[in-house]
Amino acid sequence: MPTVLSLIEAKRDGASLSDAAIQAFVDGVVAPEAPARFPDYQVAAFLMAVFFRGLDDRERRTLTLAMCHSGETLAFPADPDRPVVDKHSSGGVGDKVSLPLAPLLACLGFRVPMISGRSLGITGGTLDKLESIPGFTTRLSRERILRQVEELGVAMAGQTENMVPADRRLYALRDVTGTVPQRDLITASILSKKLAEGLQALVLDVKFGSGAFLHAYADARVLAETLVQLANACGVRTRAMLTDMETPLGRAAGNWLEIRETVQCLSGAGPADLRELVIAQAAQLLLQTGRAEDVAAATTEASRCLDSGAPLARWNDLLAAQGADLARYAMLLCADAIVPAVGELKALESGYVTRCAAGILGAVIRDLGGGRVRQDSTLNPGVGIDHLRKPGEQVQAGEVLCRVHAADGPSLEVGLARAREAFEIQPEPPAPRPLIREILG
Ligand code: URA
């Protein structure tokens, strides 16, 4: 059995690790206690070695499958009328698509056992957003996910000691060791969770731009190809959308603020870009499972369903099923803000917004307490940014470019000053950028 030190050294020096060596690494990650359990500092060192050296195709596949099988996996009874499907994003600022999409998919007749992650780097995480709802639990056992998905069509859960535990530990360590933006680690992390769900079809949202892990379109495209190839090779019909993350998605970013925007989207309102992605991803899954003839029919079906109000009712059922305190939730939804310090960032000149940099705003939100800088960082669910003005929109001097929600006055002042750096205003509008650049698979 190789020692963890020998694995670190081998990867540091650029070796291709054997399947047995990769399995030994994952075993050491999930072992319950020392000496079998590898310490955080050595796991982190191995991740940094992979960050710089990468994995070849075989190593990436072996790591993905070893992580997937590091705990229990899901298997659903065959039911051709209710395919088991899911989506996953590579991560972005304000990217709350999973939240309205999951109940929409359930209303379209799919079964959706969604296993997600927490905030990662400057991007928000589905679990942290959901846990900003009072009482909502994302810690579900395998049996509970299976039952809830059969009954309600949807469950939204996180990695646990029993389900994809390897990703649970590696994900948390990558978040605070600068080892997130790496194609092989992202692929293994995403697909270990998705392959554990027993899916028939999967749509991936691979983001590029300053608010994504891979800024360059070409790099994100390689990630998308890698994900699509491996997921399909493992038997899950998968497509990837490459979507623009230069600007935050929607007009709000931050855990609780994104729950509010989710409810707007489910109510037939909310920002157009959010609605566009929710409908496009639902439509993709209708196509991938042969439930719609073409994109136009799939889009119409998904839009009609979203506008019917049924997905909002299913969202409320999901909240009740997973323990939300519905009275407190309803009270919070009526509040304009749930933190004491809210300030407006005003335009200094008139013109068109030409930049609203997701990378800068994501870092502002993380540092306000919306994400982690250490493993033991405590999140403040109410911090974030809303009322965002987006590229192409005309503003007058003195109009609000965004609001910053902070825990106190001093952090609000810092947040407002840093948020200003994200915006650029010019006399002419910018060239429009499509939100969905390409669909692969
Ligand atoms: N989402 C994941 O689950 N893992 C990553 O590494 C990035 C996005």
Throw out a few tags for this protein.
441 residues; alpha/beta; Pyrimidine Nucleoside Phosphorylase, Chain A, domain 2; Aldehyde Oxidoreductase, domain 3; 3-stranded antiparallel beta sheet; 17 helices; binds uracil
Describe this structure in words.
Helix 1 (4-12) runs parallel beside helix 3 (40-53) and helix 5 (98-107) packs across helix 14. The chain has three domains: 4-54; 85-329, Pyrimidine Nucleoside Phosphorylase, Chain A, domain 2, CATH 3.40.1030; 340-426, Aldehyde Oxidoreductase, domain 3, CATH 3.90.1170. 46% of the residues lie in helices and 15% in strands. It is built from 17 helices and twelve strands. The strands form four sheets. A four-stranded mixed beta sheet has the order 1-4-5-12, sandwiched between helices. Strands 6-10-8 form a three-stranded antiparallel beta sheet. The protein is globular, with a radius of gyration of 21 Å. It is α/β, with parallel strands linked by helices and 441 residues long. The chain has helices at 4-12, 19-30, 40-53, 57-68, 98-107, 126-130, 142-152, 165-175, 183-195, 217-233, 255-266, 272-288, 295-307, 310-321, 326-334, 358-370, 409-420, and strands spanning 85-89, 112-116, 154-158, 201-208, 237-244, 341-346, 351-356, 384-386, 394-395, 400-406, 423-426, 436-440. The structure holds uracil. Residues 90-91, 117, 120, 180, 186, 189-190 line the site of uracil.
Please write out the topology.
Elements: H1 4-12, H2 19-30, H3 40-53, H4 57-68, E1 85-89, H5 98-107, E2 112-116, H6 126-130, H7 142-152, E3 154-158, H8 165-175, H9 183-195, E4 201-208, H10 217-233, E5 237-244, H11 255-266, H12 272-288, H13 295-307, H14 310-321, H15 326-334, E6 341-346, E7 351-356, H16 358-370, E8 384-386, E9 394-395, E10 400-406, H17 409-420, E11 423-426, E12 436-440
Parallel strand pairs: 1-4, 2-3, 4-5
Antiparallel strand pairs: 5-12, 6-10, 7-9, 7-11, 8-10
Helix pairs in contact: 1-3, 2-4, 2-8, 4-9, 5-12, 5-14, 9-10, 12-13, 16-17
Uracil is lined by residues 90-91, 117, 120, 180, 186, 189-190.
